[in-house]
Design brief:
The chain has about 220 residues and is α/β, with parallel strands linked by helices. About 20% of the residues lie in helices and about 30% in strands. It is built from 5 helices and 13 strands.
C-alpha cells in the first residue's frame, strides 16, 4: 500500500519520507493530479501560511484533487498546516478558504510567546486506533502560531487536546477516514513513529479500546 506525500513547495517532505522509510512503508511524492492515481493513502505535511499553501496548491492544480480525495473519504493525514486546511477559515488569512470539511476555524494564540515551539503533551479524549500503544499522555513536537478554535474542544471529531499558556485546543482530529495532528510526528521520536505506524497500519477498524494501552483520558 503506497502512501502519497503532497509536495506543494513547502512542508517537511524529507522528514516525513525518512520516517516512512524507517518504518518500511512505501511512499511517493505527489506533485500533480496524475501522481494520485497509484496511491492508497495521503499525507499533507504542511508548513507555512494558510493562504500561501492554498495558493500554491491551486497553482499546481492540486487543490481540487485533494479536496475530492478528502470528500470521497479516502485515508488522509494532515500534519500541522495540513490539519488546519481541513477547516474552511483561518484568522491568519481571512480571505483564503481551506477544504472546509470540518466546522469551526483556526485562530492565533493569545500568548506571550508565539509561536509555540517544542515538546508538549497530548491528552486523548476518545478511543481510536491512532492512540494504540502510546502510553499515558505522550509528548510530541509542536511548532505553530495558530490553532484550531478552543470552541471545538468538545466537538465529536476532536480526538486529542493540548494546552499552551492557558489555552486548551484540539491537537488531534478525526472524522471517518480523515485525521489531523497539530504536532509533527515525524519529528517526535519513537512516540511519533508509533503514531505514524498506527495510521499507516490502519485498515478500516477505526475504534479500539485505548484503555488496553494504559491511556488515561482516552
Amino acid at each position: 500500500m503506497t502512501t502519497g506525500i503532497i509536495d506543494y513547495g513547502g512542508g517537511n517532505l524529507h522528514s516525513v519520507i525518512n520516517a516512512l522509510n524507517y518504518l518500511g512503508k512505501p511512499a511517493q511524492l505527489v506533485k500533480n493530479q496524475e501522481d494520485m492515481h497509484n496511491i492508497q493513502k495521503l499525507i499533507f505535511p504542511g508548513v507555512g501560511s494558510f493562504a500561501a499553501a492554498v495558493n500554491d496548491l491551486k497553482q499546481r492544480e492540486l487543490f481540487k484533487p485533494i479536496q475530492a480525495w478528502i470528500e470521497s473519504n479516502r485515508p488522509y493525514l494532515g500534519i500541522c498546516l495540513g490539519m488546519q486546511l481541513l477547516f474552511a477559515r483561518s484568522s491568519e488569512s481571512p480571505e483564503a478558504r481551506g477544504f472546509g470539511v470540518l466546522p469551526g476555524g483556526v485562530e492565533k494564540f493569545r500568548a506571550r510567546r508565539i509561536p509555540q515551539i517544542g515538546w508538549n503533551r497530548v491528552k486523548w479524549v476518545r478511543e481510536n486506533y491512532l492512540c494504540s500503544r502510546l502510553q499515558g499522555k505522550p509528548f510530541f513536537y509542536f511548532l505553530h502560531s495558530f490553532h484550531v478554535s478552543s470552541k471545538q474542544v468538545s466537538a465529536p471529531w476532536t480526538l486529542g487536546l493540548a494546552e499552551y499558556e492557558g489555552t486548551t485546543y484540539p491537537a488531534v482530529v478525526h472524522l471517518e477516514n480523515l485525521w489531523g495532528v497539530q504536532f509533527h510526528p515525524e519529528k517526535s521520536g519513537k512516540v511519533g513513529l508509533q503514531l505514524l505506524k498506527n495510521w499507516l497500519d490502519w485498515d478500516g477498524d477505526i475504534v479500539v479500546n485505548c484503555k488496553n494501552y494504559s491511556l488515561p483520558g482516552c
